[in-house]
Design a protein that fits this description.
Blueprint (H helix, E strand, L loop, with lengths): L3 E4 L2 E5 L5 E5 L5 E4 L5 H12 L7 E4 L5 H7 L5 E5 L11 H13 L16 E3 L2 E6 L2 E7 L8 E5 L4 E3 L17 H11 L8 E4 L3 E3 L1 H23 L4 H5 L2 H8 L6 H19 L1
Parallel strand pairs: 4-5, 5-6, 6-7, 11-12
Antiparallel strand pairs: 1-2, 2-3, 3-4, 8-9, 9-10, 10-11, 12-13
Amino acid sequence: NIMQEIAPNVFITTNSLGLITGIIHPEEGLVFIDSPTRLDELDSIGAKLTGNAKPSPRFLVVLDTNYDRLLSAKGMDFIIIAHVNSITPTKPKSGAAKASEDQTSLGDTSDSPNGSMRQFSPEIVFQTDLSIFLGTMEIRLEHHAGVNNAGVWVELPQQKLLFVGDTVMGDEPPFLAYFDADTWLTDLELLASERFRGYQIISSRCGIVTQEQIDVMHQRLTYIRDTLNPLLENKASLDEMLKLIPQIIDYYNVPPLLHDLYYNRLRWGLTTYYENHR
């Protein structure tokens, strides 16, 4: 895999599921933000950075509970760090939600949830924020629940870097299963604020993002919220909510070849969201 150095001892690369993996590697240890999904990817990165040596300590930060993240964390010989909500049992799914997941899994493996994969056990969990120090480098984790109730941002304040997971999605429709629209919009406004002026902001889906991309994400999410809210307020049925999917896909101007992928993603997401909020 091609690794891009975005600051001294900080790299990004793309794993086989399409996630942007962050790699922080000062002399004192190694931190992955999300992870490679195959051992050969991990071995390749390790050889480029350290030869055959295994740096210690080694941490893996899991940015939320989306299926592809938990899949990439499985079997990793690292100390796994996640938000405490990642180990909170989810409420049992109805037949409608299970049917949606079954259909989704046929053609959309990278987005598909799987009950057993959600039962993972991080070694370290935190509630609001947590700092790790490797030598003089601070790696600060902060809870941001807009995109996912276990959502985490990773900030390197000295390097002015911020990994925001799926908070900014680029040109693809977002994962809606565990989102909170108002909190997510607040998170996007924070990204546009003075606090992160001059930062490189890294999305897990599209790499380093511009302020314009953050603004566009805010507009798109506002549209989704304003489209869904009347149905939620009127306690609409699941079928009525799912009828919005073509409208959302048209709004995103999805290429025909990706139509089924994003239809399945939105169907699974809205079904799960409906089951968790009715």
